[in-house]
Amino acid sequence: MTKFYNYRGNSSSRQEKEQTHPIWRGVGFIFMILAPLMGWFGAQVLLEANKANGWIKIPTDFYAPGADSLLYVKIGLTILLAFLIFFVFQFIGIIIFRMVGPERYGPMDVPPITGVKTKKSR
After folding, report:
1. Where are the domains of the chain?
2. Which residues contact 36 (CB under 8 A, 6 or more apart)?
3. What's the whole-model pTM score?
4. Vertex 71: Cα angle to 58 and 64 (nearest 5)
């Protein structure tokens, strides 16, 4: 028996274990499409609310030549909102994974060392 013999009898290889399940790749693809769309519509809503309420005056340097003068503002706001929406989805996913995911230590892990005082090295 070699040092790295799989004694549990698991026949799946390491590459198979490390691959992402196709369902999660599909969910990631949906969020990759959904976050920028939500960012674009959020940018539209924010700009309309800004026009009605006058929260922030948009400098004329940000105006684009052509039919849609606020195109650059919409693109920038869309990118910002898409990142924010993506991070909110990630944070929710992390919280759900921590609640229902696997335990931190499995049955084959060595328990963490507690109660030992170590000397700091210089």
Report:
1. 20-100
2. 78, 82
3. 0.69
4. 75
Angstrom distance (rounded) from CA 51 to CA 68 = 15
pLDDT value at 3 more than 70: no
DSSP string, the chain: --TT--TT-----HHHHHSPPHHHHHHHHHHHHHHHHHHHHHHHHHHHHHHHH--SPPPGGGPPSSS-TTHHHHHHHHHHHHHHHHHHHHHHHHHHHHHHS--SS-TTSPPPP-S---PPP-
Cα separation of 77 and 34, whole Å?
16
Burial label, 65 (beta-carbon count in 10 A; 0-12, 13-18, 19+): exposed
Length of the chain: 122
How far is Cα 37 from Cα 79, in angstroms, rounded to an integer?
10
- pLDDT band at residue 24, thresholds of 50, 70 and 90? confident
